[in-house]
Design goal:
The chain has 471 residues and is of the alpha/beta class. It has 13 helices and 24 strands. The strands form six sheets. Strands 1, 2, 3, 4, 5, 6 and 19 form a seven-stranded mixed beta sheet that branches. The longest helix is centred in the N-terminal third of the chain and has 25 residues. It is globular and about 65 Å long. The relative contact order is 0.11.
């Protein structure tokens, strides 16, 4: 007989749900995980991981085209899109199986189906309209994630449409053809990553952003540098622009844009909609509970608890920042608080790094310069350009910037912002510094290895206090 009584039931097997399940099991709890589609969730199957596999291909393709700069000769450079996509799907599939293995290793009971609240301490699991199980647990954690946002008149083509002209991130990851021209609606991380991938492979790419700058959550200086870099690559970027209409033709799409009160039409092979995400709050059995939902996201306290006793929510379901690592950490905090682990701290979102894996890469943690000044803080700002770093020049990546922001009074690191090669790997150094509440003194006295790109992190700190060496 299948066990149905647990200490914790988690609905959703993404990076929030499966990590939470493992930690709960480590803490001695009897754990069940309900997943309706793929272990690893959107992130592993249709987001973080497969997109990075695609971007790695485009990075290599770019390097091959610039082989002569490194003293190499490469001829007849081309790509096979089907093989590019197949590799990406293979990477996702391998890791999804790995998560299933982790569930077995940690003795987490996995139920294949759609889970929903079914009364006090109850979860009902169904698959294709048939009952799978009725589970019970004192603690139920909702980790159902989110999906692409759509707007009236800007809907993607549905599953029954054979030739899809208007894509979400899912269709963009498994294209049936290489578009010669592409319009991306939205310049957040998702939109810019796809714009970068397709542009590097040769598509004519136009990016449309309703805000006055691309990557609007990033520091303004970094956004401007990214804008300049993307235009240098041949992207067309339209900020302060809205999409008024999409007209699907036989083989392409005509898009009506509006900016400054004027409209214009652009015809492209395909359109990618990347206008943000909405929480998966539907059909979770929230009706009749005290769980509050605001703008498609579940409202929780600092410990991920909802207003309904025994019901919690984590990850994208609870709102921004929409990051896999945020979801995982929230889940760990949630079950550690439930288990009574001593020394548990609420999540400080100011210490969560964010990364965009375009070319050049963008990464940041903490406050922007503008936000710090608007808060009334007296700040010291340090900058160091890639052109002053030996490793960057040796790599053939001399364009980029490391920017740090400190409280002039206390020396606290308020924020760090980067653009350039491998900054998504380096940002964690500043995240550790912020989490450890290090000041400029500790960072200045930290010895960075040479030659590395990370030396620029040290130099940026030095620059904020008038002590930069190599610039």
């Amino acid at each position: 007989m299948v066990e149905t009584n647990f200490d914790v039931v988690i609905i959703g097997g993404g990076p929030g749900g499966y990590v939470t399940a493992i930690r709960a099991s480590q803490l001695g709890m009897k754990v069940a995980l309900v997943e309706r589609e793929h272990m690893g969730g959107i992130c592993l199957n249709w987001g973080c991981i497969p997109t990075k596999a695609l971007l790695r291909t485009s990075e290599i393709y770019h390097l091959m085209h610039n082989a002569e700069a490194f003293g190499l000769s490469v001829k007849d450079i081309k790509f096979d899109l089907a093989k590019v996509v197949a590799r990406s799907r293979g990477v996702a599939g391998q890791l999804s199986k790995g998560v299933s293995g982790l569930m077995k290793k940690n003795k987490v009971a996995v139920f294949d189906g759609h889970g929903k609240l079914a009364g006090k301490d109850k979860v009902s699991v169904e698959k294709d309209g048939a009952k799978v199980a009725d589970l019970s647990a004192k603690h139920i954690i909702l980790a159902t994630g989110a999906r692409a946002r759509t707007m009236p008149g800007l809907e993607p083509d549905g599953p029954l449409v054979l030739k899809k002209l208007v894509w979400t991130y899912k269709e963009a990851m498994v294209p049936d053809m290489m578009p010669k021209s592409l319009l991306v609606v939205g310049s957040g991380a998702i939109g810019i990553e796809f714009a970068s991938f397709y542009r590097t492979l040769g598509a004519e790419v136009t990016v449309v952003e309703i805000m006055d700058r691309i990557l609007p959550v990033e520091d303004e200086e970094i956004s401007k540098l990214a804008h300049k870099a993307f235009e240098k690559q041949g992207m067309k970027i339209n900020t302060g622009t809205t999409v008024k209409a999409l007209k699907r033709n036989k083989d392409n799409v005509t898009v009506t844009l509006e900016a400054g009160g004027k409209t214009s039409d652009v015809t492209v092979d395909r359109v990618i909609l990347a206008m943000g995400i909405v929480g998966n709050v539907e059909n979770l059995g929230l009706e009749g509970t005290k769980v509050k939902v605001e703008k498609t996201h579940v409202v929780v306290d600092q410990w991920s608890a909802t207003a309904e006793p025994g019901v919690y929510a984590i990850g994208d379901l609870t709102g921004p920042p929409w990051l896999a690592h945020k979801a995982s950490h929230e889940g760990v905090i949630c079950v550690e608080k439930i288990a009574g682990v001593k020394g548990v701290h609420p999540l400080n979102v100011k210490n969560i790094p964010g990364c965009t894996y375009c070319w050049p890469q963008v990464a940041s943690v903490g406050m922007t310069e503008k936000a710090a000044k608007e808060k009334g803080l007296n700040v010291k700002v340090g900058r160091f350009q890639f052109i002053g770093n030996g490793k960057a020049i040796a790599l053939g990546e001399p364009e980029g910037l490391i920017k740090t922001i400190f409280d002039a009074k206390t020396g606290e690191l308020l924020g760090a912002h980067m653009i350039g090669a491998e900054v998504t790997e380096m940002i964690q150094g500043y995240a550790i510094a912020k989490t450890g509440e290090l000041t400029e003194a500790e960072l200045m006295h930290t010895v960075f290895p040479h030659p590395t790109l990370s030396e620029m992190m040290h130099e940026s700190v030095l620059d904020a206090f008038g002590r930069v060496i190599h610039m």
